[in-house]
Amino acid sequence: MLHRPPAAPTPPMGWNSWDCYGAGITEKDLLANAAYLRDHLKEYGWQYVVCDIQWYEPRAVDTDYNNFTPLCMDEYSRLIPAENRFPSAAGGKGFSVIAEQIHAMGLKFGVHLLRGIPRQAVHSGAKTVTGVLAKDIAAQYSVCPWNTDMYGVDADKPGAREYYESVFALFAEWGVDYVKVDDIANTEFLKDDPYSAAKEIELMRDAIDKCGRTMVLSLSPGPAPIAHARHLSANADLWRMSGDFWDSRDKLIEMFRLCEKWYAFVGDGKWPDCDMLPVGRLMVTHRKLGSHYTRFTRDEQITMMNLWCIFRSPLMIGAELRDNDDFTLSLLTNPEVLAVNQRSTRPVPVRCEPDEAVWQNAMEDGSPVVALFNLTESERTVSVTLRELGLTGTCALRDLWRHETVGTTSDNTPIAVTLPPTGSVMYRLESMG
Amino acid sequence: MLHRPPAAPTPPMGWNSWDCYGAGITEKDLLANAAYLRDHLKEYGWQYVVCDIQWYEPRAVDTDYNNFTPLCMDEYSRLIPAENRFPSAAGGKGFSVIAEQIHAMGLKFGVHLLRGIPRQAVHSGAKTVTGVLAKDIAAQYSVCPWNTDMYGVDADKPGAREYYESVFALFAEWGVDYVKVDDIANTEFLKDDPYSAAKEIELMRDAIDKCGRTMVLSLSPGPAPIAHARHLSANADLWRMSGDFWDSRDKLIEMFRLCEKWYAFVGDGKWPDCDMLPVGRLMVTHRKLGSHYTRFTRDEQITMMNLWCIFRSPLMIGAELRDNDDFTLSLLTNPEVLAVNQRSTRPVPVRCEPDEAVWQNAMEDGSPVVALFNLTESERTVSVTLRELGLTGTCALRDLWRHETVGTTSDNTPIAVTLPPTGSVMYRLESMG
Amino acid sequence: MLHRPPAAPTPPMGWNSWDCYGAGITEKDLLANAAYLRDHLKEYGWQYVVCDIQWYEPRAVDTDYNNFTPLCMDEYSRLIPAENRFPSAAGGKGFSVIAEQIHAMGLKFGVHLLRGIPRQAVHSGAKTVTGVLAKDIAAQYSVCPWNTDMYGVDADKPGAREYYESVFALFAEWGVDYVKVDDIANTEFLKDDPYSAAKEIELMRDAIDKCGRTMVLSLSPGPAPIAHARHLSANADLWRMSGDFWDSRDKLIEMFRLCEKWYAFVGDGKWPDCDMLPVGRLMVTHRKLGSHYTRFTRDEQITMMNLWCIFRSPLMIGAELRDNDDFTLSLLTNPEVLAVNQRSTRPVPVRCEPDEAVWQNAMEDGSPVVALFNLTESERTVSVTLRELGLTGTCALRDLWRHETVGTTSDNTPIAVTLPPTGSVMYRLESMG
Amino acid sequence: MLHRPPAAPTPPMGWNSWDCYGAGITEKDLLANAAYLRDHLKEYGWQYVVCDIQWYEPRAVDTDYNNFTPLCMDEYSRLIPAENRFPSAAGGKGFSVIAEQIHAMGLKFGVHLLRGIPRQAVHSGAKTVTGVLAKDIAAQYSVCPWNTDMYGVDADKPGAREYYESVFALFAEWGVDYVKVDDIANTEFLKDDPYSAAKEIELMRDAIDKCGRTMVLSLSPGPAPIAHARHLSANADLWRMSGDFWDSRDKLIEMFRLCEKWYAFVGDGKWPDCDMLPVGRLMVTHRKLGSHYTRFTRDEQITMMNLWCIFRSPLMIGAELRDNDDFTLSLLTNPEVLAVNQRSTRPVPVRCEPDEAVWQNAMEDGSPVVALFNLTESERTVSVTLRELGLTGTCALRDLWRHETVGTTSDNTPIAVTLPPTGSVMYRLESMG
């Protein structure tokens, strides 16, 4: 007897088009970022290339949605890529040509999916795969609060299950490896129930199990309700703990609170998700705002990497990779830090205070890792004792960003470090007996 | 200087088509009930004839809605009567012929309106009165939880105000005297806010003030949130305190709790609404359930009338009036009881307990009225002292259902009466010095 | 038959020792303030002289309480005045000598009472009037969150009712006219129930009804839970809507929100209470903070008076009256403004916005009163139309602070006035036809 | 460098006096039960003997508390055993003689502690170890809702830390191995905060770390708030998930819901606690109710053991052990079932439905364990597939209660078993390749 491997045995690492292209990514830019990933990042473990929302919307450009706009759809009420943006989709090929190219790079391909069935299908009398009309499986009361494309699906209606199966079967046919489903992990269409889409999650879980291809299932947006942690863990591989994360210090600080809530659910192929890394050049095509380089300071970016890695969050890069500067690239290619994300065990919040935090983990070989965080906007000394870490003895502190030993600690000598505003360190503790 | 009279100086009394015809009332049945009202009830104060929901839906039959079904609409995205059901609407006459006939009977005419703009208009590219597209004033995230006809209107969008003005101007043109707006007094399309439609209520208030015709504004469904009592009172004439009321003992008992919450807001032309009176023959055309005569016992019906009247609730009859039996008619034509509803001052809950209730009011001439209620399913003696009523002296008890004096009370002799299960009495206290 | 008059047919007006003396008022200062009331304020309607908390605590000085300190108590576990502070209480006379003197001035006398029975009685084995031990009626789980003097009383225990009766009988014997009961209108000793003391309120109501003397019953602290408005109204004469009110602009602004919630419960001898007027010299004896003159600007004080009066709140002066300056005295002796408080009908909130408010009332003769409030910290023009006030015609605006007509208004000419920061006006509308 | 071992590396197993003796256990009965533990249970892993609440109350007999009753206390306001109940405490020996005897049996000794400082000390002017008066560290607003012995301690007051240190130092001196602190894991003395005692928990944690003796720290009562899981885990060894658990089917069913919430926090020496096992003879000395044998059916008892063991709950026996019948003893001495509790890894809730549940765990050697539960009151077949368990292949099902192989399962053959009302099975899966 064997244990079945989970679809994501370690936290997924990759690139997603949202932060730089919003709803408007094109085939050309997608493949160019994939090529960058292959050339500069793959060797460090980065592997997923994810095409985010509205690849079926011909007029989409950036993070603003066009309300009630025509969508590209096949005869079974399934969305298909807009050919003006994804030319290889012509002739009914969908994403299969793109998937093939990405696989040829040694990478994996992901797509975004909005929960539900197109409103366009419902109001135009379209059919689904079983012949049931789209309007007869639509849950009319279930609409996404921020996008007009879909109605939710009433999971109890005849034809609902088969509809979702037909969607994932099409993804499998295309060669999709990862699906980021949206408007699903927090969607309060039933009064006071932010987890109203539970049955649709189950239908998707079953559809993936049945589709004949391994696919990672990622659920958005957050905050996913922690009261449903078991259901999330049983049905998905990763799920968002927060609303959309962007390059704002407040959101970074808030993530510490969320990690404190969720830490016990990390591991065994299940990954509460801190959301994308808004580093490098972002919002490249934004009509109103223009693009900008991340507003995070370098210390904030390192603090973000330290938290995401010691917590074992999925890591999805937001940058237009071709515009990376040296610092951004260095941030994403530190093997000692990424090892904490990929080859540690379980995160433990040792201290969670408004002004400072200490997190602990252990590598697979048992060696402890500890990160100390300054959550204030001033310099601050943060310290922790071996007793607080449940340890005893003497050990060297290996700084995982400086790649060198920076001191020792023992029962009588706490770890103490003076950190810049919103700064942090991450150490591996190496026993000296 | 004069005080402007409110649109409903006393609680509105009338008949509404919902309880007997659901969404499927026709011109013929509407006018037949109006004629009954004229012949048997008008002299007791009953005056409104209200045509409830989906008069624009050609296929509607009963309380079940057809999802995503075609609606009758004019060129400005306004709903108009379905001619197959309301033949006099032919030739663009809308409800004007019916209104005229009802006015000729000495009665007033009311219609139902669902908050928003038809989804059919939004998805078919229709215009509104200002030329703005329906899709550009639709609040896409705002859908009714139980009916697919409309999207809410985003009150901040250009053209939103004019759209609602155009709807009420059409009603004024038709001769409408009363509008029951639905999906508005409790509609949680914004998270945790059951009063999300406040701005649409204000637009409707302004539209009525501007339309050149006096119209009573009634808001549904309940429970309207009491935290917004002031806003309701400032903008509407009546509003629902409860979810849909039907002939169920549990709902009747629950109404005592709701009256206890809302009593202070009764009066000065403002009427928290206990909802319709489900008496007589109900659900006449129901496809699945068939019709039934009210399931309330006679004692329960009297208890309902006593509460609705001493509380000064609006009174809207649910019965197919032509099928009234003698008891039902007698219930609706007791002048002493209806006088409490129309010519008393303010209700006071003297005792509100799980098992019994005592309510008090005073007629315009100052004479006290008291009702004693048994809320249990067994016989029970309920009593109250003059001290509890804030009174002193000696007085006769006039039973408003038996139309005779049934005893006296004084400082030393409480009012005490043995009541059948869910039974009640209502007395006017006549001073004996 | 007669209607029994309520204990407080109009909002009570008087002086209370808390704002100037905290828990430390003495007989001398109490009587000196009473004399000032007699000489300068009585003719304007001010009549109650209320001795606030801990008159039984020998060491009390200001608003800080001594924890677990010895209290003066009689043989039935009832608190009695500390003789070092109230010398006339010697020889078991309690407050009777003081009450007599105050009555002789043509004024009325009030005392404070903390809900419950002294912990000192419970832990020392003391008896109550029936012989039942104090510890056997104490509700051990019920303690005041801010003072250690008492345990709550378990209303269901034998002897509980008699204990409260004995307390109010003693007050009646002394000649008390007004009781401010504390730790009762909002006291969450039962989980999630801020109205846990409901049964003790009922015992006190009954005890007053039985004591043979008319006493006004005032309940503190706030916020009293509006869900229990009926119970408050049935059992007390006034009750606090807010936490302790002091001379802070934020608290003044918050009071507009609270009045908006509570307005419907005002009238018929029942008075939701905005709390004391922190004007003049305050905190006279404070050990740590010293005394100060009110921090309110003159405009804020007028705004406070306008709100308290048009809302018909009880009016209790907080000042050490002997230190009043001319402005303070003028504030308290404006007959036209006080008439709105004493001889109007019911308050109506016409507009309640973050930045401005308009309130309306009508004098007993029907003449409308309107107050316009600027709630911002800048100058602001506030206006209201006759339509919004439910009026029509033409009328003169009498400014109740300037005592003159300042303009007219009509259907086409709204009332509009430019107000200083946190400023307001109050007008009586006099018909010109 | 070494990892410090947790105080409770596996879920604590033992006996506690509450279920059979309430607050009234005596030295004689305590030692008699300890002797039984030594003779019949120790070899199966049972080791703790815990003396529950009010060992300092001379008049305590059963689960009813005497309110405001005299307590035994030393000169530093610390509680000491009542000599009439624990004669060996005479001469200031406290629990040291009893601890010694229990240690001599090869067992460990635990005591109960109510959070806070005796009210008797506060009201009698008693001192604490530093000379600070008891009344000056008491948090007057913090009282236990169900017992009058203590006031909470205000952790910020000088002398508070030292007071708690003195209490645990005394326990260390006596030889205490386990402390069950009560009124602490859920105690809402601050409004809306069921975890108001967080600072006192920290003081106790520090006091134990400093006392020089390993002590297990158990927190009661439940429900401990899951929002504070991290704090509980960082400071205590076990904590209650539920209110008091007794032999009621409803409470047993409810425990499945609680385990579903808490499972992720089980392991690494931290134990969310299902509470005591109410088996055998209970409430031996109850004045009003008399004693009774557990009301659980045998199936319910097995279901309880299966859940407690696969979830890895602490196991504390409630029975008067000397009255055990054969079935009760057999329930507590099944080595295969107890091995799941002591030597598995982490519990996983595979299915959590109102009518049935499936839980999974894995032994330290990796072999899977699965328990299937019928939560209805009728016979019911429950099944689970290997896919749902994340497994594949073929394996034998070893029934841990029947001690034999009862079938096999494979990818195509689900585990399916027909269970009696509230019945369950627990299987270890043994690979057949």
Describe this structure in words.
Chain A has 433 residues and is of the alpha/beta class. The first copy, chain A, has twelve helices and 23 strands. Chain A has helices at 18-21, 27-41, 96-104, 119-123, 134-137, 160-174, 198-211, 229-235, 249-262, 298-311, 326-331, 335-343, and strands spanning 2-3, 13-16, 48-51, 108-114, 117-118, 138-143, 150-153, 178-182, 216-219, 238-240, 271-273, 281-282, 292-293, 315-317, 348-352, 356-362, 368-374, 380-384, 391-392, 394-399, 404-410, 415-419, 424-431. In chain A, the strands form five sheets. In chain A, strands 11-10-9-8-4-3-2-14 form an eight-stranded parallel beta sheet. In chain A, strands 15-16-17-23-20-21 form a six-stranded antiparallel beta sheet, covered by helices on one side. At the A-D interface, strand 1, helix 8, strand 15 and strand 19 of A face strand 1, helix 8, strand 15 and strand 19 of D.
List the helices and strands and how they pair.
Four copies of one chain form a homotetramer.
Chain A: E1 2-3, E2 13-16, H1 18-21, H2 27-41, E3 48-51, H3 96-104, E4 108-114, E5 117-118, H4 119-123, H5 134-137, E6 138-143, E7 150-153, H6 160-174, E8 178-182, H7 198-211, E9 216-219, H8 229-235, E10 238-240, H9 249-262, E11 271-273, E12 281-282, E13 292-293, H10 298-311, E14 315-317, H11 326-331, H12 335-343, E15 348-352, E16 356-362, E17 368-374, E18 380-384, E19 391-392, E20 394-399, E21 404-410, E22 415-419, E23 424-431
Helix pairs in contact in A: 6-7, 9-10, 10-12
